[in-house]
TrEMBL record:
Keyword Transmembrane helix appears in the UniProt entry: yes
Transmembrane residue ranges: 7-26
BP-aspect Gene Ontology terms: proteolysis; signal transduction
Domain PDZ: 98-173
UniProt keywords, alphabetically: Hydrolase, Membrane, Protease, Serine protease, Transmembrane, Transmembrane helix
Pfam families assigned: PDZ_2, Peptidase_S41
Protein family per UniProt: Belongs to the peptidase S41A family.
Keyword Membrane among UniProt keywords: yes
GO CC annotation: outer membrane-bounded periplasmic space
SMART domains registered for this protein in UniProt: PDZ (SM00228), TSPc (SM00245)
Protein name, as recorded: Peptidase S41
Domain Tail specific protease: 175-357
Domain of life: Bacteria
UniProt lineage: Bacteria, Pseudomonadati, Bacteroidota, Flavobacteriia, Flavobacteriales
Amino acid sequence: MKFDNKYLPIVIGGIFALGVLIGSLSSPSSTNSFLSKRNTKEKLNKLIDFIDSEYVDDVNTDSIVSLTVNSILAKLDPHSVYIPPSEQAEIAETMKGDFVGIGINFYMHNDSVAVINPVKNGPSAKAGIKAGDRILYAGKTKLYGRKLPNDSLFAKLKGEVGSKIELTVYRKAERKKMKITIKRDVIPLKSVDVALRLDNTTGYIKINRFAETTFDEFHKALISLKKQGIKSLVVDLRDNGGGYMEEAIAIADEFLKDKELIVFTKSTKEPTEKTYATAEGDFETGSLFVLINENSASASEILAGAIQDNDRGTVVGRRSFGKGLVQREMDFKDGSAVRLTIARYYTPTGRCIQKSYAKGGNEEYFKESDSRFLHGELYKKDSIKVVDSLKFKTKKGKIVYGGGGIIPDVFVPLEAEHGVENVSYLLQSGIVGHFVFEELDKKRKVFTKLTFEQFKTKINETDLYFTAFQKYLTKNGLKIDLANYKPLVKRYVNAEFARQLYGDVYYYQMVLKDDTMIKAVLKEEAKLKDLK
C-alpha cells in the first residue's frame, strides 16, 4: 500500500548488503565514500551507547534518537517525518478505516464522558446507549471527575472483537443510573462523510481523507446516486489533506476513459512510473465538478489535477495546498515509523504542484497557506501568484500552472470576507459541536419530539442560538464579534443541531443549501445545459 504513492517497507539488511557489494566492485573513490558513510553511522551509534553507559545523569536515549532522527529529516523536506509509536498507532488505525470498540462519539463535559451520539447500528446503539448519556464507570474504572486524556479513555473502551464491557451510565433526561453491557465490535471510520442529491439530477459526495476503504465507500455511494437518476456529480475534497494515492487513482479511474493518464512519478532512484485509467469506469460521461480549497492536499490534488488536465470536469474553489511529494513508510520494531520522500508526482500535463520549501524551514512552509489571507488570495483570484515558466496546456488548450497547488477553473472566495478571516474554519471546528450538545442537554426531550421539517422551521426562524453561541465563545475566551456573519453562523450552528438530532445527511442538507461553492457549481451546470 502506498502513502501518497509508495507505501512499501525498506529492507535495511538487503540495502546494506547491496551497498557492500557495490563498494567491493567500485573504484577506490567509491569505496572511500562508502567507508566514510559507514564510519559516520558507527560514530553516531557509538556516541549514543557512550551516553547511555557513562553519562553522569540518567538519560532517555530513546528521546535522543528521536531528536536525532527529527533533526536529520528536517534537513530534507517538510514531508519527510518521524512518527513516534503513540501517534503512529492512531494514524494507522485512521487510515485502516475501522477499529474495535463500543461505537460512541463523545467528549469530556464538566469532567464527565458525555455521549454526543452512539454510532448508528453500532454496539452502543444496539445496547441502548443514547445521546446525552454520561458514562460513569467502564467496568470498575471510574471515568468521571478525573480529567482523563482521550487516549486513556479510548484504551478503557476498546478491546477485542466480541469482548464485553459493563458501563455504568447516568441518563440525565430520565434522572436515573443504569448498568449496560456492551459487546465490542468493528466500528467503521468513514472517509466518505455523505452522499446525497442536491437536486433531481445532481449528486454530491464528500470525501474527508483517502484511507484503505475510501474507494469502496465512494463506489458504493456513486452507484446509489446513479440509481437515483443523477446526471451530474460534485466531489467535495475541501479540507481533505490526502492519504493513500491508490484510492485517489481508483476514484479518478471512475471518471476517465481507457488509457488516459492519471498521474506519473519521477525519482532519481527509480524509473518514471505512469498510471493510466482502465476501460472500467462508472461515471465516464456526465458533468463532473471537484471542490477544493487551501487545505486540499496530496491525494486530493492528484485527483483534482487528473480531472483538470484531462478536461474531464470543472475544478471549483480556491488554490489547493501544493504537496507534490511522494512518501515511502519504514516501520520500526517499537511501533514508530519514518515517512521518507522518495519521488515527486506530476499531473497528466507534466505539472509538479509542489510549492517551494527552499526558504524559512518547515514552520514557514506550513504557514504559507495562512499567508494567503494577508495578500488577499482567498478573496480574489487575481491575487493568486503564478509562475509563468511553469505554464502547461491541457488537451483542449486550457492554461494550467505548476509550482504551487491546483488553481481552480472557477474561483470562489472565502465566505467570511475580510475582518474575521477564521470564522468559516471556527464554524467547522469542535467548539460548535460542544455548544450544540450543551444546548440540547438543557431540553433534549423537547427537541426529540420534533420531525426534521418542524425542527428546521423553528430553528431557522429564531436568533436564540446565534446569540447563545456568541455568548458561549466569549465565555470560553474567544473574543470574536459574529454580528457581521449572522447568516453564516446560523447555517452552521443550526446544521450541527440537525446532525446531533437526525444524522450527517441532515447536517449537509442544511449546510449545502447556501454554500457558495455549491451555488457556483449549480450556476456552471446551468451554463453547460444551455450549451447543449
